[in-house]
């Protein structure tokens, strides 16, 4: 019973936090598209954007239906983003922003593992 309750709390915390994360990212996207006229982006920038925020947001969306797969995808994209930035710039990204946006993926993963463990 405690496992069920913990999985439920993790699941809904991840869903609310994930929805807020995606909304936060969309505010930036909409704001940039309204402003328009920004600089042209190179391939390196597009690869980084594909990992974060696009890949993380896709993983969080998938997590609503497939918790473990979406969580793995979101966390994998975050790790890939950090590795990519390290590769192209030689330094690790600083600040908590990317981790805070992707953290619901970890919660989804934990909820999925608890639910799967209960099922066995």
Secondary-structure topology with pairs:
Layout: H1 2-35, H2 43-63, H3 67-89, H4 97-119
Give a description of the structure:
The protein is mainly α and 120 residues long. It has one domain (2-33, 40-119). The chain contains four helices and no strands. It has helices at 2-35, 43-63, 67-89, 97-119. The chain is elongated and about 55 Å long. The protein starts with a helix and ends with a helix.
Short structural summary:
The protein contains 4 helices and no strands. The protein is mainly alpha-helical and 120 residues long.
- The helix/strand series, from N terminus to C terminus, equals HHHH
Q: Uncertain segments of ≥5 residues (pLDDT<50)?
A: none
Give the rounded overall mean pLDDT.
92
**End-to-end distance:** 14 Å
Strand elements, count: 0
What is the helix fraction of residues, given as a range?
A: over 70%
- Report the sheet-strand fraction: under 5%
Q: What kind of sheet is the major sheet? A: none
Shape: elongated
Q: Based on helices, strands and strand pairing, what is the structural class?
A: mainly alpha
Total domain units: 1
The Rg value, from CA coordinates, equals 16 Å
User: How many distinct helices?
Assistant: 4
């Amino acid at each position: 019973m405690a496992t069920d309750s913990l999985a439920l709390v993790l699941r809904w915390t991840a869903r609310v936090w994930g929805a807020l994360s995606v909304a936060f990212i969309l505010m930036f996207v909409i704001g940039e598209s309204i402003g328009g006229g920004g600089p042209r982006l190179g391939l390196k920038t597009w690869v980084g954007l594909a990992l974060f925020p696009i890949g993380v947001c896709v993983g969080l969306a998938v997590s609503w239906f497939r918790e473990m797969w979406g969580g793995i995808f979101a966390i994998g994209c975050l790790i890939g983003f950090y590795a990519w930035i390290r590769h192209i710039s030689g330094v690790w990204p600083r600040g908590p922003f990317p981790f805070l946006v992707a953290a619901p993926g970890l919660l989804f993963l934990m909820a999925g593992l608890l639910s799967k463990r209960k099922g066995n």
